[in-house]
Amino acid sequence: MYPYNLKTKNTPIIAKERTKESLSADRRLLELLQMAKQEAALLEQKYTALLQEELLKEAETVLQTMVTDEKKHQRILREILFLLFSDTFEDLLEDMEPDETETKTAEELLEELLFTEMDDITFFRSLLSAVAGNDMDDDLWHLIFEIITDKQNHTAALNHLYAKYMK
Known about the structure:
This protein is mostly helical and 167 residues long. The chain contains five helices and no strands. The chain has helices spanning 20-24, 27-51, 60-85, 106-131, 138-165. Helix 2 (27-51) packs antiparallel against helix 4.
């Protein structure tokens, strides 16, 4: 049980300072953000494929929302790339097409999407921790947090769909 009645000294937690300049120089962060953008495009394709499944016709609205969210995530990731790497942003615009052509059953696709969304939550939480700092404005934090919230909603919805329609 949390000891609410203890008198504690108000000491702020000082995180390692991260400035826009230090993040802009991090090429690994750039690669991770580009991979996340490509992953969002791939997820959009997979959700669109799920929309075609006859078994999941009742869940069409939910799946369409996820497709729309993944389009939004691609836009948000472009915005994050611009916020962090604005000096070289034009060079970053090359969009790579996802190369997923393998056909899967609805059950396999649902399961894969569920695990992918859970992995994405972990990734974006780590990203949020990595970029959050004293010098960063709230825009970046809110953009990443919005993606995390959507991913959590997707995970809950996919879990429900899997429980309802599969074995």
